Amino acid sequence: MVMLRKILVVVVAIIAIPFVVALFVQKDYSVTRTITIDKPVTEVFDYIKHLKNQDDFSKWALMDPDMVKTYRGTDATVGFVSAWASENPDVGVGEQEIIAIDEGKRIDFELRFISPFEANEPAYMTTATINSNQTKVDWGFSGHFDYPANLMFLFFDFETMIGADLQQGLDTLKVVLEK
């Protein structure tokens, strides 16, 4: 009986420890990557504000050439929605909507992931003039994991993983625009 009680205490402790640890683990992350494009800011912004153009530079849009894409509204305007559906679990199903545009400076999106997981996360792209023929572009994304799912931060570096994907997209954007 005493041995059974000790085993039970150990099992309960093993189960409880991750939940206690999760109380002290971050719940939010934010990632921004930057690139300089040798084009005027108006030309760069006019290109990136069209969500359909992400098909030419976003890593996620390029991962599955067979994904089904649908659109609602007028591209490059608030309320436009670009949706995707893919059998590839790294792409999944979701949509992004333009929620704000500060013409020539910033475009804000809401990403709504449906599958393989559900989440609503904000993202944005900004442009800033460096000189008459150079533009600084920032691409940012942030996310949140509720307790106890935030334990994933102990095992996965989301900032590095997502940052690499954003940087790859920006590198491709640079090539596309500087052609």
Automatic annotation (TrEMBL):
It comes from the Bacteria. Pfam families: Polyketide_cyc2. Gene3D superfamilies: 3.30.530.20. This is SRPBCC family protein.
